[in-house]
Amino acid sequence: MFNKIFAKLFTKTKIEQKSKGEPLPQDQDVIDLNIELKTEVIANPQKITSPLISENEIIFERQLIKRIENALSEYDFVKKEKIAFLAEELIKDRLKHSKNLLSLDEKRSLNLNTRSKYAREFIECFINVEDFDFDPKFFCRNLKNTEQSILWCLNNIEELKQKGFVKRVELEGKGLWNNKTYDIDKIPPMEKIDYTEEQVLFFVIAKVDY
Which residues contact 139 (CB under 8 A, 6 or more apart)? Predict the structure, then answer.
């Protein structure tokens, strides 16, 4: 991969120099540059492969995993010993690369969607999957998305309170949060969601008087 990248780099450099009427470098100069660049890339692979993650993102992820664990623990069909694993999986999404998938016959025997792919490790997080009247993938995706929106809202509200210039907010979601406006110090709690059935996202919109 590196050889192809450098070949393109040097070809472009020669064309640009020729178009500008500049003298082309000697072969030895190119070889020296090639070695120098290779050494830098190999010595610092994180520059290519590791995106920077802020401290706030790390804190948010930890908070979200904890919220997901608490939400999963409310459901008897989730194995207690699998809650931590499943919560982290919903964030990391590592099982999408799993080769250990249920066969077509296994999916039929468990009343699962035969057109979907299910990692065996994922299905093993649940009890009596064959009795579900919902797709476990829908349940997990729904739970993660809603808990994420709730955490965003809670953090947003605290941030607005600290800034002090926002007195009222408009809420979107369910129940008392369904398109209602409240004083920022009188926001009602969010209604509990059944993640096997409902798809609900929560939002906070600051109301600023000009």
Answer: 195, 196
Q: Tell me whether residue 59 is in a domain.
A: yes
Say whether both 71 and 108 belong to one domain. Answer: yes
Q: In this structure, how many other beta carbons lie within 10 angstroms of the beta carbon of residue 183?
A: 10
Instruction: Describe the strand order of the beta sheet including 203-207 as a list of residue ranges.
Output: 180-183, 168-172, 203-207
What pLDDT is recorded for position 57? 87
For the chain, give the number of residues: 210
Which phi and psi (to 5°) does residue 147 adopt? Answer: -65, -35
Sign of the Cα pseudo-torsion (158, 159, 163, 169, in order) = negative
- With respect to residue 195, please indicate whether it lies within any of the assigned structural domains: no
Does this model's pTM top 0.90? My answer is: no
Does 113 share its domain with 149?
Answer: yes
How many separate domains does the chain show? 2
